[in-house]
């Protein structure tokens, strides 16, 4: 029976595929006409009025936008969705072990209680506990995390049986207790009510314990910041504390790992942390599958392990399957989500599109990875020396490579020499090996996830996206402007890093994977380049409007239709996608705005960071996002009010460009009214008007709002924005007619 029934099915939405392709055809045809129109300029009578310089800038911007649009179409070529049948999985005793990796880096930005909640939710996955091994990497090297884990372990002894007995769906205690009414089959039964009360009290006590641990730490003068950059490896298996209070409960094993840190030694951020867990877990439990979680992404439902195995154990899919990715979803998203923190497009459109090709990109968290897939091609190494140069000198680790470990793997805590484990977590272990280059998570960019996923694809591995009706993982979305732009700058720097490296998807992609799949990766790594056309189109047509230089066809010109059709077609497609993925018209406007704000700020700074790094002028940095809840920030976000408390570095470009657009619009309107060439200047009038309307909240924040989140018109901001606007306008204005 099990042999005949599939564990999973994939579905193609034929009408979506058809409309997508039809849209591509129409839009592409229009783009060809646009290029023809622009090129015709060069063969025109040299006496024509329009100067070359602005024309060329606008044309180049249009070319870049068209190029990015073409890359974007690969995602829309063949989107699919999937269903799984976990009931058809083998019996529990035949299921493979799973290792869970959780990364945390900084207890001040990543509240310990939240990390423990993630940990507890992972321990409580619906999976045989003896087959689950949870490893926590603490880059903060903080005793607070270690001690909190010991408390979490004690609480888990109550929490896990409670979840199992009452078949609790949400097994993250914090999320469970934050919902006042718990809907379950047992709701109302007196037994459940008393147990629920008991577990709630225990959770409160657990919270108190963590608070106490934190205070103790504070009193003992712990200097986490300095410590975290310089310490020897700390590895501890959290042991069973024998207690007569309750019957022996089977719990997944729990291991604390804080790798060695030296200030002089590059530690490669999250990728480095994951690689240490990779090695430690290989010699301890060596499960064939690994679930990777960020510390802020808890398991919202316990079913993900079995769902993922529906792909990993499917003999048709599994030989080339590297990982099953669940979409990132967030628990703190408001109705209108004014920052597009949920990244709707990525997780509801793009990933589905890649899933229909070779598979979604690795997204950092919420994925079940096949351990073997990140070992590179160690199998073709013949001699011991070759293997040692590949994966390092640990004999135990090398043994683990060959161990055909699918069932009853070694249990944590077996008699492994401690030296060996510490060696695997030391700074020197990777020196002279292929870790980070061919083995494990790859180094060289702060977007280790995209890079690693891309190389897996290059090496012939596939991936699968599974987006179940009930979100299996929920993270902490960045719901403030500063966080969003800082995170964006990091991502775009990391993505462009990959684009500028020898792994550029456009060059090494098509040789090693399908063309469409490499276009998808190219789109991701070229995404930061949006800053170029957006900066240009926010300035040049506007200045030309004031100066009376036409850059677009007249309303009466047949080509006007092309320039009308292209934005209309792009906006309509975007709007339809927003509406069909559960969004509203308002969400569409918000996404347009965030795209503009992001492009002129974080994309730009990301590109600059990547370039500076390329020329060795700057080192990569990975500032973890702040996960501490800020009530004021949350209040503003929930009220759909932007929180503009961010650095001037981000505010100045936004404000300067708005100043340029508003003044050019007014000046241009005045000129058009007096000269009467409105049909010639129609598009150039429309553009600043659109930019102003979409970005109205910035104007509101600057001149109307009085609350804390407004743009505080400090002298520095006002002066710098005006100076920047003046420099841009005067320099470009003088160049407009010269060339
Ligand atoms: O030196 C470091 C830095 C970060 N982290 C951990 O990495 C995770 C992700 O960091 P976060 O600050 O939450 O960054 P985000 O921008 O939210 O992360 C997204 O982007 C990252 C790539 O930039 C991916 O690694 C993540 O999975 C993805 O969720 C967290 O658990 C951190 O504790 C480390 O372990 N060591
Ligand atoms: Mn995060």
TrEMBL record:
Stored Gene3D superfamilies: Spore Coat Polysaccharide Biosynthesis Protein SpsA, Chain A
Binding residues annotated for UDP-alpha-D-glucose, in chain numbering: 109-110, 139
Keyword annotations from UniProtKB, A to Z: Cell wall biogenesis/degradation, Glycosyltransferase, Membrane, Transferase, Transmembrane, Transmembrane helix
Main location, first listed in the record: membrane
Catalytic residues identified in the record: 139, 449
Location of the protein in the cell: Endomembrane system
Residues reported to bind Mn(2+): 270, 294
Topology in the lipid bilayer: Multi-pass membrane protein
A Pfam family reported for this protein in Swiss-Prot or TrEMBL: Cellulose_synt
Xref: InterPro entries: Cellulose_synth, Nucleotide-diphossugar_trans
Top-level division of the source organism's lineage: Eukaryota
Molecular function per GO: cellulose synthase (UDP-forming) activity
GO biological process, one term: cellulose biosynthetic process
Ranges annotated as spanning the membrane: 20-39, 51-71, 558-574, 649-670, 682-703, 715-736
This protein's GO CC annotations: endomembrane system; membrane
Protein's recorded name: Cellulose synthase-like protein G2
Native source species: Psophocarpus tetragonolobus (Winged bean)
Species lineage: Eukaryota, Viridiplantae, Streptophyta, Embryophyta, Tracheophyta
